[in-house]
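RECORD TYPE: inverse folding
INPUT: structure tokens
STRUCTURE:
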């Protein structure tokens, strides 16, 4: 067993674990929470209010977007690389390219 494969097995790193972690990150980033600031007089965090006295809520749009992008890339790779059964000759790997530029890049161009 090669080094990377042995490490992945030792730490139980699988595609399923990575997808589950990305889903959790996306969910956490999508949750809104009250924006707070440290109040020196009260010696605690207090909610930040807008001009009308309402709490301001935020969420981590960048983190949510990046996790969603990585999940999309994973699913795209799953659908673009599949095995095709030819019955009389066995199976072969097939790569589907989304554009001519991707094909040129794969073949060493650009």
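DESIGNED SEQUENCE:
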């Amino acid at each position: 067993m090669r080094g990377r494969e042995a490490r992945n097995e030792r730490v139980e790193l699988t595609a399923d674990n990575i997808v589950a972690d990305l889903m959790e990150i996306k969910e956490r980033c999508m949750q809104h929470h009250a924006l707070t600031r440290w109040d020196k007089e009260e010696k605690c965090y207090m909610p930040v209010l807008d001009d009308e006295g309402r709490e301001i809520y935020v969420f981590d749009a960048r983190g949510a977007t990046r996790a969603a992008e990585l999940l999309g890339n994973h699913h795209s790779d799953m659908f673009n690389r599949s095995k095709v059964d030819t019955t009389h000759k066995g199976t072969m790997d097939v790569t589907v390219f989304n554009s001519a530029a991707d094909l040129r890049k794969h073949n060493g161009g650009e």
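NOTES: The mean pLDDT is 76.
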